[in-house]
Amino acid sequence: MASEVKKQLGDNIFLTTLDAAASWARSNSLWPMPFATACCGIELMSTAASRHDLSRFGSEVMRFSPRQCDLMIVAGRVAMKMLPVLQRIWLQMPEPKWCISMGACACSGGVFDTYAVVQGIDRFMPVDVYIPGCPPRPEQLIKAIVDLQEMIKAGGTYDAREFALRDTAEGPARFDEDELIRIRERNGLKLESPKYDPVH
Ligand code: SF4
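# iron/sulfur cluster complex -> structure
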């Protein structure tokens, strides 16, 4: 009987776990939400173009609707005034979701060591992969996505191990609106309190 089954099926069957299959499918169908604010955004665009062809890795379906995305790519410097918008988009993306910080500016503020620029987005939202460089090459973004895919495959879709690793399950901490005032005061500036409207 066993030999009959083997004869019929040949090499056309393989066994795996449901969790491994689901994680494999999830890792190869990332839908990025591009948050491109500066020159790094041009590198991001060229990664999706024909020369580098991000679709080879199943991650070219850029969407500007957060509800349809699971991969935030922050490419470029983020001004303090943009931060509430970035946080809101991140919170609107459904779990599970991941974030790539692309370029020196997104990772650390880059050369813009000033109170008006966020000195690293990971101070306000979780980041899974960092890409160094100014600007980073498209190949670096592809490598970051491949690394992220490996991370997702090892994550566990059905037992939700990936959520156990998150220490910010409820989303990023609310932006401290007084921080800008404190930074300005340290620099000897006395200005009006900035107003952050989370809606507009
Ligand atoms: S890291 Fe360099 S290339 Fe990227 S946004 Fe900053 S200044 Fe531009």
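# post-check
Helices lie at 2-9, 18-27, 40-48, 83-92, 103-108, 138-153, 161-165, 179-186.
Strands lie at 32-36, 71-75, 98-102, 129-131.
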